[in-house]
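Hi Y.,

Following your request, here is the sequence exactly as I used it, all 456 residues.
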Amino acid sequence: MDHSLNQYVRWLQGIIEAINDGILVIDSEGIVRLINDEYTKITGVKKEDIIGKPLSEVREGAISPTVLIDKKRRSAIYRKVGEQEYVVDMAPIYYDHQILGVVNVLKSVNEVKALTKELEKSKIKLAQLEKTVGHLHQAKYTFHDIIGEDKEIKNVIELAKRTASSNLNVLIQGESGTGKELFAHAIHNESPRSGYAFVPINCAAIPSSLLESELFGYEEGSFTNSKKGGKIGLFELADHGTLFLDEIGDLSLELQAKLLRVLQEGRIRKIGGLKEQEVNVRIVAATNKDLLQMVAKGRFREDLFYRLNGVQLMIPPLRSRKGDLFTLIDKIVKHKELPFHLTFTADAKKQLFEYHWPGNVRELLNAIHYAATMTDSETIDIVHLPAFLQSNRMADDREDTNLSLKDILERKEREVIIKTLKIYGTSLKGKELAAQKLGISLATLYNKINQLKIKF
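Below is the corresponding structure, written out as C-alpha coordinates. Let me know if you'd prefer a different format.
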Protein backbone atom coordinates (compact mmCIF):
# COMPACT_ATOMS: atom_id res chain seq x y z
CA MET A 1 0.00 0.00 0.00
CA ASP A 2 2.85 2.37 0.93
CA HIS A 3 4.55 1.51 -2.36
CA SER A 4 1.40 2.37 -4.31
CA LEU A 5 1.02 5.63 -2.39
CA ASN A 6 4.62 6.63 -3.11
CA GLN A 7 4.06 5.93 -6.80
CA TYR A 8 0.96 8.08 -6.75
CA VAL A 9 2.82 10.96 -5.08
CA ARG A 10 5.65 10.78 -7.64
CA TRP A 11 3.12 10.67 -10.42
CA LEU A 12 1.30 13.71 -9.00
CA GLN A 13 4.61 15.57 -8.57
CA GLY A 14 5.49 14.85 -12.21
CA ILE A 15 2.18 16.30 -13.38
CA ILE A 16 2.64 19.43 -11.30
CA GLU A 17 6.18 19.97 -12.62
CA ALA A 18 4.89 19.69 -16.19
CA ILE A 19 2.50 22.60 -15.71
CA ASN A 20 3.74 25.98 -16.97
CA ASP A 21 2.03 27.91 -14.18
CA GLY A 22 3.31 28.12 -10.62
CA ILE A 23 1.61 25.59 -8.29
CA LEU A 24 1.46 25.58 -4.46
CA VAL A 25 -0.62 23.14 -2.40
CA ILE A 26 -1.36 23.37 1.34
CA ASP A 27 -3.09 20.70 3.42
CA SER A 28 -6.07 21.12 5.74
CA GLU A 29 -3.74 22.43 8.47
CA GLY A 30 -2.30 25.15 6.24
CA ILE A 31 1.05 23.33 5.85
CA VAL A 32 2.77 23.64 2.45
CA ARG A 33 3.01 20.15 0.92
CA LEU A 34 3.84 20.73 -2.79
CA ILE A 35 5.28 23.43 -5.02
CA ASN A 36 6.71 23.14 -8.51
CA ASP A 37 9.77 24.69 -10.14
CA GLU A 38 7.67 27.32 -11.90
CA TYR A 39 6.48 28.56 -8.49
CA THR A 40 10.09 28.99 -7.44
CA LYS A 41 10.86 30.76 -10.72
CA ILE A 42 7.97 33.22 -10.29
CA THR A 43 8.31 33.96 -6.57
CA GLY A 44 11.97 33.28 -5.95
CA VAL A 45 11.05 31.04 -2.96
CA LYS A 46 13.04 27.78 -2.72
CA LYS A 47 11.37 24.46 -1.95
CA GLU A 48 13.46 23.82 1.17
CA ASP A 49 12.39 27.18 2.62
CA ILE A 50 8.66 26.56 2.37
CA ILE A 51 7.70 22.85 2.13
CA GLY A 52 6.57 21.41 5.48
CA LYS A 53 5.99 24.84 7.01
CA PRO A 54 2.78 26.78 7.72
CA LEU A 55 2.13 29.06 4.73
CA SER A 56 1.01 31.91 6.97
CA GLU A 57 4.45 31.95 8.64
CA VAL A 58 6.61 31.88 5.51
CA ARG A 59 4.44 34.04 3.25
CA GLU A 60 3.23 37.22 4.89
CA GLY A 61 -0.38 38.10 4.02
CA ALA A 62 -1.12 34.66 2.58
CA ILE A 63 -4.82 34.27 1.77
CA SER A 64 -4.90 30.50 1.26
CA PRO A 65 -5.43 29.77 4.98
CA THR A 66 -8.59 31.90 4.77
CA VAL A 67 -9.85 29.74 1.89
CA LEU A 68 -9.59 26.75 4.24
CA ILE A 69 -12.05 28.50 6.53
CA ASP A 70 -14.62 30.08 4.19
CA LYS A 71 -14.12 27.46 1.43
CA LYS A 72 -14.52 30.13 -1.30
CA ARG A 73 -12.52 30.37 -4.48
CA ARG A 74 -10.35 33.41 -5.15
CA SER A 75 -9.45 34.62 -8.64
CA ALA A 76 -6.79 36.96 -10.04
CA ILE A 77 -5.37 38.06 -6.68
CA TYR A 78 -2.53 40.46 -7.49
CA ARG A 79 0.75 39.91 -5.60
CA LYS A 80 4.17 41.55 -5.85
CA VAL A 81 7.40 40.31 -4.30
CA GLY A 82 10.38 42.52 -5.09
CA GLU A 83 10.40 42.96 -8.87
CA GLN A 84 8.18 39.94 -9.42
CA GLU A 85 4.50 40.54 -10.12
CA TYR A 86 1.97 37.76 -10.42
CA VAL A 87 -1.70 36.92 -10.05
CA VAL A 88 -3.01 33.96 -8.05
CA ASP A 89 -6.10 31.79 -8.38
CA MET A 90 -7.01 29.76 -5.28
CA ALA A 91 -9.43 26.86 -4.95
CA PRO A 92 -10.28 24.45 -2.09
CA ILE A 93 -9.52 20.73 -2.66
CA TYR A 94 -12.25 18.29 -1.66
CA TYR A 95 -12.44 14.51 -1.26
CA ASP A 96 -15.62 12.78 -0.13
CA HIS A 97 -17.08 16.17 0.88
CA GLN A 98 -14.13 16.83 3.18
CA ILE A 99 -11.72 19.71 2.52
CA LEU A 100 -8.17 18.41 2.11
CA GLY A 101 -6.42 21.66 1.40
CA VAL A 102 -6.05 24.52 -1.08
CA VAL A 103 -4.30 24.72 -4.46
CA ASN A 104 -2.76 28.00 -5.66
CA VAL A 105 -2.11 28.65 -9.37
CA LEU A 106 0.26 31.55 -10.13
CA LYS A 107 0.70 33.40 -13.43
CA SER A 108 3.61 35.81 -13.84
CA VAL A 109 2.50 39.34 -14.73
CA ASN A 110 6.05 40.06 -15.93
CA GLU A 111 5.80 37.22 -18.42
CA VAL A 112 2.36 38.34 -19.58
CA LYS A 113 3.73 41.88 -20.05
CA ALA A 114 6.69 40.54 -22.03
CA LEU A 115 4.40 38.45 -24.23
CA THR A 116 2.09 41.43 -24.73
CA LYS A 117 5.08 43.55 -25.72
CA GLU A 118 6.22 40.91 -28.22
CA LEU A 119 2.67 40.69 -29.55
CA GLU A 120 2.60 44.43 -30.09
CA LYS A 121 5.93 44.24 -31.90
CA SER A 122 4.53 41.48 -34.08
CA LYS A 123 1.45 43.57 -34.83
CA ILE A 124 3.65 46.48 -35.86
CA LYS A 125 5.78 44.23 -38.08
CA LEU A 126 2.64 42.73 -39.61
CA ALA A 127 1.24 46.19 -40.32
CA GLN A 128 4.54 47.19 -41.92
CA LEU A 129 4.57 44.00 -43.97
CA GLU A 130 1.00 44.54 -45.11
CA LYS A 131 1.88 48.11 -46.07
CA THR A 132 4.99 46.97 -47.94
CA VAL A 133 3.23 44.10 -49.67
CA GLY A 134 0.35 46.39 -50.58
CA HIS A 135 2.78 48.95 -52.02
CA LEU A 136 4.85 46.42 -53.94
CA HIS A 137 1.85 44.62 -55.36
CA GLN A 138 -0.24 47.46 -56.73
CA ALA A 139 -0.97 47.83 -60.42
CA LYS A 140 0.71 51.03 -61.64
CA TYR A 141 -1.07 51.71 -64.93
CA THR A 142 -4.63 52.31 -66.05
CA PHE A 143 -6.27 52.47 -69.47
CA HIS A 144 -5.51 56.22 -69.49
CA ASP A 145 -1.84 55.28 -69.83
CA ILE A 146 -2.44 53.33 -73.04
CA ILE A 147 -2.11 55.67 -76.03
CA GLY A 148 -3.81 54.82 -79.30
CA GLU A 149 -6.18 56.27 -81.89
CA ASP A 150 -5.55 53.56 -84.47
CA LYS A 151 -8.67 51.46 -85.01
CA GLU A 152 -6.92 48.16 -84.25
CA ILE A 153 -5.48 49.27 -80.90
CA LYS A 154 -8.77 50.99 -79.94
CA ASN A 155 -10.61 47.71 -80.52
CA VAL A 156 -8.12 45.90 -78.26
CA ILE A 157 -8.53 48.56 -75.55
CA GLU A 158 -12.32 48.27 -75.73
CA LEU A 159 -12.18 44.48 -75.47
CA ALA A 160 -9.76 44.73 -72.52
CA LYS A 161 -12.11 47.13 -70.70
CA ARG A 162 -15.04 44.76 -71.18
CA THR A 163 -12.88 41.87 -70.02
CA ALA A 164 -11.75 43.70 -66.88
CA SER A 165 -15.16 43.52 -65.19
CA SER A 166 -15.29 39.72 -65.54
CA ASN A 167 -13.37 36.96 -63.77
CA LEU A 168 -12.18 35.36 -67.00
CA ASN A 169 -8.50 34.57 -67.36
CA VAL A 170 -6.79 36.70 -69.99
CA LEU A 171 -4.07 35.79 -72.48
CA ILE A 172 -2.23 38.80 -73.91
CA GLN A 173 -0.16 38.12 -77.01
CA GLY A 174 2.08 40.46 -78.94
CA GLU A 175 5.65 41.20 -79.89
CA SER A 176 8.18 42.42 -77.33
CA GLY A 177 7.72 46.07 -76.45
CA THR A 178 4.08 46.38 -77.54
CA GLY A 179 2.79 47.16 -74.03
CA LYS A 180 1.43 43.81 -72.85
CA GLU A 181 2.29 44.63 -69.24
CA LEU A 182 0.43 47.95 -69.42
CA PHE A 183 -2.71 46.07 -70.44
CA ALA A 184 -2.27 43.61 -67.55
CA HIS A 185 -2.00 46.46 -65.02
CA ALA A 186 -4.93 48.33 -66.54
CA ILE A 187 -7.19 45.26 -66.55
CA HIS A 188 -6.53 44.71 -62.83
CA ASN A 189 -7.12 48.38 -61.96
CA GLU A 190 -10.41 48.36 -63.85
CA SER A 191 -11.59 45.08 -62.26
CA PRO A 192 -13.54 44.34 -59.05
CA ARG A 193 -10.24 42.89 -57.75
CA SER A 194 -8.47 46.27 -57.85
CA GLY A 195 -8.56 46.54 -54.04
CA TYR A 196 -6.42 43.41 -53.77
CA ALA A 197 -2.88 42.58 -54.85
CA PHE A 198 -1.56 42.65 -58.40
CA VAL A 199 1.37 40.23 -58.35
CA PRO A 200 3.60 40.10 -61.44
CA ILE A 201 6.27 37.51 -62.20
CA ASN A 202 8.42 37.00 -65.30
CA CYS A 203 8.48 33.27 -65.99
CA ALA A 204 11.56 33.63 -68.19
CA ALA A 205 13.61 35.48 -65.58
CA ILE A 206 13.64 32.76 -62.90
CA PRO A 207 15.09 29.25 -63.31
CA SER A 208 12.40 26.56 -63.41
CA SER A 209 13.89 24.93 -60.29
CA LEU A 210 13.19 28.12 -58.30
CA LEU A 211 10.00 29.23 -60.01
CA GLU A 212 7.87 26.55 -58.34
CA SER A 213 8.78 27.78 -54.85
CA GLU A 214 8.10 31.37 -55.95
CA LEU A 215 4.64 30.48 -57.20
CA PHE A 216 3.52 28.04 -54.51
CA GLY A 217 5.77 28.84 -51.51
CA TYR A 218 7.28 26.21 -49.22
CA GLU A 219 7.15 24.92 -45.66
CA GLU A 220 10.05 25.27 -43.24
CA GLY A 221 12.68 22.57 -43.73
CA SER A 222 11.46 21.62 -47.22
CA PHE A 223 14.99 21.83 -48.59
CA THR A 224 18.50 22.98 -47.69
CA ASN A 225 18.77 26.72 -46.93
CA SER A 226 15.00 27.14 -46.79
CA LYS A 227 13.79 30.11 -44.72
CA LYS A 228 12.82 29.62 -41.12
CA GLY A 229 9.04 29.57 -41.02
CA GLY A 230 8.84 28.76 -44.72
CA LYS A 231 7.83 31.15 -47.49
CA ILE A 232 4.54 32.44 -48.78
CA GLY A 233 4.00 31.88 -52.51
CA LEU A 234 2.80 34.34 -55.13
CA PHE A 235 -0.54 32.54 -55.52
CA GLU A 236 -1.19 33.12 -51.84
CA LEU A 237 -0.08 36.76 -52.09
CA ALA A 238 -2.43 37.26 -55.02
CA ASP A 239 -5.45 35.69 -53.28
CA HIS A 240 -8.60 37.59 -54.34
CA GLY A 241 -6.39 39.63 -56.69
CA THR A 242 -4.54 39.11 -59.98
CA LEU A 243 -1.45 37.05 -60.76
CA PHE A 244 0.33 38.32 -63.89
CA LEU A 245 2.38 35.57 -65.52
CA ASP A 246 4.61 37.36 -67.99
CA GLU A 247 6.45 35.28 -70.62
CA ILE A 248 4.13 32.33 -69.94
CA GLY A 249 5.56 30.60 -73.02
CA ASP A 250 8.81 29.99 -71.13
CA LEU A 251 7.10 27.93 -68.42
CA SER A 252 8.37 24.33 -68.28
CA LEU A 253 5.95 21.50 -69.07
CA GLU A 254 6.19 20.31 -65.46
CA LEU A 255 5.12 23.69 -64.11
CA GLN A 256 2.48 23.98 -66.81
CA ALA A 257 0.86 20.84 -65.39
CA LYS A 258 0.92 22.25 -61.85
CA LEU A 259 -0.47 25.58 -63.02
CA LEU A 260 -3.27 23.77 -64.86
CA ARG A 261 -4.19 21.91 -61.67
CA VAL A 262 -4.52 25.20 -59.75
CA LEU A 263 -6.70 26.67 -62.48
CA GLN A 264 -8.91 23.58 -62.47
CA GLU A 265 -9.26 23.10 -58.71
CA GLY A 266 -8.57 26.52 -57.19
CA ARG A 267 -6.19 24.98 -54.64
CA ILE A 268 -2.46 25.11 -54.01
CA ARG A 269 -0.08 23.06 -51.90
CA LYS A 270 3.23 24.48 -50.70
CA ILE A 271 6.41 22.56 -51.40
CA GLY A 272 6.88 20.19 -48.47
CA GLY A 273 3.33 20.81 -47.29
CA LEU A 274 0.62 18.25 -46.61
CA LYS A 275 -2.43 20.51 -46.62
CA GLU A 276 -4.01 22.21 -49.58
CA GLN A 277 -5.45 25.69 -49.34
CA GLU A 278 -8.01 27.42 -51.51
CA VAL A 279 -6.98 30.45 -53.55
CA ASN A 280 -9.16 32.83 -55.51
CA VAL A 281 -6.84 34.24 -58.16
CA ARG A 282 -7.40 35.67 -61.61
CA ILE A 283 -4.66 34.85 -64.11
CA VAL A 284 -3.50 37.35 -66.68
CA ALA A 285 -0.78 35.79 -68.84
CA ALA A 286 1.36 37.37 -71.55
CA THR A 287 3.75 36.09 -74.19
CA ASN A 288 5.56 37.16 -77.32
CA LYS A 289 5.59 33.56 -78.54
CA ASP A 290 3.13 31.78 -80.78
CA LEU A 291 1.51 29.42 -78.29
CA LEU A 292 -0.46 27.60 -80.97
CA GLN A 293 2.81 26.78 -82.70
CA MET A 294 4.20 25.57 -79.37
CA VAL A 295 1.07 23.44 -78.85
CA ALA A 296 1.59 21.87 -82.29
CA LYS A 297 5.20 21.06 -81.39
CA GLY A 298 4.28 19.66 -77.97
CA ARG A 299 6.05 22.44 -76.06
CA PHE A 300 2.92 23.94 -74.53
CA ARG A 301 -0.07 22.10 -73.10
CA GLU A 302 -3.19 22.49 -75.21
CA ASP A 303 -5.48 22.18 -72.16
CA LEU A 304 -3.57 24.93 -70.36
CA PHE A 305 -3.70 27.14 -73.46
CA TYR A 306 -7.51 26.99 -73.49
CA ARG A 307 -7.70 27.51 -69.71
CA LEU A 308 -5.62 30.69 -70.00
CA ASN A 309 -7.36 31.82 -73.16
CA GLY A 310 -10.62 32.92 -71.53
CA VAL A 311 -10.18 36.16 -73.45
CA GLN A 312 -7.38 36.67 -75.96
CA LEU A 313 -5.92 40.11 -76.57
CA MET A 314 -3.66 40.50 -79.61
CA ILE A 315 -1.63 43.70 -79.22
CA PRO A 316 -0.73 45.09 -82.65
CA PRO A 317 2.91 45.99 -83.38
CA LEU A 318 3.86 49.65 -83.72
CA ARG A 319 4.60 49.31 -87.46
CA SER A 320 0.94 48.43 -88.09
CA ARG A 321 -0.32 51.56 -86.32
CA LYS A 322 2.03 54.26 -87.54
CA GLY A 323 -0.76 56.80 -87.06
CA ASP A 324 -0.10 56.64 -83.32
CA LEU A 325 3.66 57.15 -83.70
CA PHE A 326 3.83 60.89 -83.04
CA THR A 327 1.14 60.74 -80.36
CA LEU A 328 3.40 58.28 -78.54
CA ILE A 329 6.43 60.49 -79.18
CA ASP A 330 4.57 63.49 -77.72
CA LYS A 331 3.87 61.50 -74.58
CA ILE A 332 7.52 60.46 -74.31
CA VAL A 333 8.68 64.06 -74.89
CA LYS A 334 6.42 65.28 -72.08
CA HIS A 335 8.01 62.79 -69.71
CA LYS A 336 9.59 64.59 -66.76
CA GLU A 337 13.10 63.45 -67.68
CA LEU A 338 12.99 65.15 -71.12
CA PRO A 339 12.80 68.81 -72.20
CA PHE A 340 9.21 69.97 -72.49
CA HIS A 341 9.45 71.74 -75.89
CA LEU A 342 11.43 69.17 -77.87
CA THR A 343 10.67 69.33 -81.61
CA PHE A 344 11.65 67.24 -84.64
CA THR A 345 12.73 68.34 -88.10
CA ALA A 346 10.78 67.08 -91.10
CA ASP A 347 13.66 64.75 -92.05
CA ALA A 348 13.80 63.28 -88.54
CA LYS A 349 10.04 62.74 -88.56
CA LYS A 350 10.24 61.04 -91.97
CA GLN A 351 12.96 58.70 -90.77
CA LEU A 352 11.05 57.85 -87.60
CA PHE A 353 7.90 57.17 -89.61
CA GLU A 354 9.59 54.97 -92.20
CA TYR A 355 11.42 52.76 -89.72
CA HIS A 356 9.79 49.36 -89.06
CA TRP A 357 10.26 49.38 -85.23
CA PRO A 358 10.88 45.68 -84.50
CA GLY A 359 11.27 46.55 -80.82
CA ASN A 360 7.96 48.47 -80.87
CA VAL A 361 7.13 51.13 -78.27
CA ARG A 362 10.03 50.12 -76.03
CA GLU A 363 12.47 50.68 -78.90
CA LEU A 364 10.78 54.00 -79.72
CA LEU A 365 11.15 55.13 -76.10
CA ASN A 366 14.87 54.31 -76.11
CA ALA A 367 15.39 56.08 -79.45
CA ILE A 368 13.73 59.30 -78.25
CA HIS A 369 15.69 59.25 -74.99
CA TYR A 370 18.88 58.79 -77.00
CA ALA A 371 18.05 61.66 -79.39
CA ALA A 372 17.20 63.99 -76.49
CA THR A 373 20.59 63.24 -74.96
CA MET A 374 22.45 63.87 -78.23
CA THR A 375 20.95 67.27 -79.05
CA ASP A 376 22.19 70.52 -77.50
CA SER A 377 19.01 72.34 -78.39
CA GLU A 378 15.30 71.66 -78.36
CA THR A 379 15.35 70.43 -81.96
CA ILE A 380 16.09 66.87 -83.03
CA ASP A 381 17.44 66.22 -86.52
CA ILE A 382 18.50 62.99 -88.24
CA VAL A 383 22.04 63.30 -86.87
CA HIS A 384 20.70 63.07 -83.33
CA LEU A 385 18.88 59.78 -83.95
CA PRO A 386 20.45 56.38 -83.17
CA ALA A 387 22.66 54.95 -85.94
CA PHE A 388 20.08 52.35 -86.97
CA LEU A 389 17.64 55.18 -87.78
CA GLN A 390 20.12 57.21 -89.85
CA SER A 391 20.32 54.66 -92.69
CA ASN A 392 18.68 55.88 -95.89
CA ARG A 393 17.51 52.36 -96.73
CA MET A 394 15.45 50.30 -94.31
CA ALA A 395 15.97 46.54 -94.42
CA ASP A 396 12.29 45.78 -94.65
CA ASP A 397 11.75 48.25 -97.51
CA ARG A 398 14.20 46.59 -99.92
CA GLU A 399 12.47 45.27 -103.02
CA ASP A 400 13.74 44.44 -106.47
CA THR A 401 12.56 47.41 -108.57
CA ASN A 402 12.57 45.24 -111.70
CA LEU A 403 9.57 43.25 -110.42
CA SER A 404 5.95 44.22 -111.03
CA LEU A 405 3.64 44.86 -108.06
CA LYS A 406 1.87 41.54 -108.79
CA ASP A 407 5.19 39.67 -108.73
CA ILE A 408 6.26 41.36 -105.50
CA LEU A 409 2.97 40.47 -103.79
CA GLU A 410 3.08 36.85 -104.97
CA ARG A 411 6.68 36.50 -103.82
CA LYS A 412 5.80 37.86 -100.38
CA GLU A 413 2.70 35.64 -100.16
CA ARG A 414 4.75 32.60 -101.09
CA GLU A 415 7.41 33.43 -98.47
CA VAL A 416 4.79 33.84 -95.74
CA ILE A 417 3.00 30.57 -96.54
CA ILE A 418 6.27 28.60 -96.70
CA LYS A 419 7.43 30.11 -93.41
CA THR A 420 4.10 29.32 -91.71
CA LEU A 421 4.10 25.71 -92.98
CA LYS A 422 7.64 25.24 -91.73
CA ILE A 423 6.43 26.26 -88.28
CA TYR A 424 3.28 24.12 -88.14
CA GLY A 425 4.29 21.28 -90.45
CA THR A 426 2.77 19.92 -93.66
CA SER A 427 0.53 17.28 -92.10
CA LEU A 428 -3.23 17.82 -92.24
CA LYS A 429 -3.19 19.08 -88.64
CA GLY A 430 -0.25 21.36 -89.44
CA LYS A 431 -2.01 22.82 -92.48
CA GLU A 432 -5.18 23.40 -90.45
CA LEU A 433 -3.17 25.34 -87.86
CA ALA A 434 -1.29 27.24 -90.58
CA ALA A 435 -4.58 28.22 -92.27
CA GLN A 436 -5.94 29.36 -88.89
CA LYS A 437 -2.82 31.44 -88.28
CA LEU A 438 -3.01 33.01 -91.77
CA GLY A 439 -6.72 33.77 -91.35
CA ILE A 440 -7.80 31.75 -94.40
CA SER A 441 -9.73 28.52 -94.93
CA LEU A 442 -7.97 25.20 -95.44
CA ALA A 443 -9.33 25.09 -99.02
CA THR A 444 -7.87 28.54 -99.75
CA LEU A 445 -4.51 27.42 -98.39
CA TYR A 446 -4.49 24.40 -100.74
CA ASN A 447 -5.35 26.68 -103.69
CA LYS A 448 -2.52 29.05 -102.77
CA ILE A 449 -0.07 26.15 -102.53
CA ASN A 450 -1.03 25.05 -106.06
CA GLN A 451 -1.13 28.57 -107.57
CA LEU A 452 2.26 29.56 -106.12
CA LYS A 453 3.77 26.16 -106.94
CA ILE A 454 4.90 25.56 -103.38
CA LYS A 455 6.61 22.20 -102.98
CA PHE A 456 7.87 20.39 -99.89
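The radius of gyration is 38 Å.

Thanks again,
Q.
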